[in-house]
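Re: that chain you flagged

S.,

Sorry for the slow reply, it's been a week of failed gels. I finally had a moment to sit down with the sequence you sent. For the record, here it is as I used it:
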Amino acid sequence: MATQSLWKTRLSAARVRFASAADSVVTARNRHRTRAALTEQHRLHFDLLCKAMDDPALAAVLNTYESDVTPERQRQYLFANALYVNALYFHRIGALTRRELHGHFRIMCQNRVFQEYWAATHHHRESLPDSSEEAGLGQMMDNLIQDQADSDADEWWVVGEPPEESQ
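Prediction finished late last night. Pasting the structure tokens below so you have them in one place:
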């Protein structure tokens, strides 16, 4: 009887370990699928932006700015968007921490054309839910641009408080 009870206990423990291993495999597979879907979406977004940058007729479809923008400036805005989305993508797949993303944003904010793009697309971000990650990252960029505009320091790389590592 004791032997039978021991076997039942071992069998039960083995089932738990097997279920745990199966969950780990499923979780890893789902993470891989999510990353693959993000990669494909990023590639498609970039391909579309490249087509729009090469063809003013296609770029006109993306002209949703509230002021007139020359075709040259629009191509620059589309490229600025590509840089911003690329940084977001690397953050989303886990290649950049939020703190590292802050550093990339800080560099992007140094460029006058990028600042103009960011201001011209402000209304695009107004519909984002305040609780969304993208709204939070947009706010991070807004704060960096404002902090740099308010700063007297020539040392732009120290402007703006980076987020905590745990975020």
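What I noticed first: The helical segments are 2-54, 56-59, 71-92, 98-108, 112-120, 122-125, 133-150.

Talk soon,
D.
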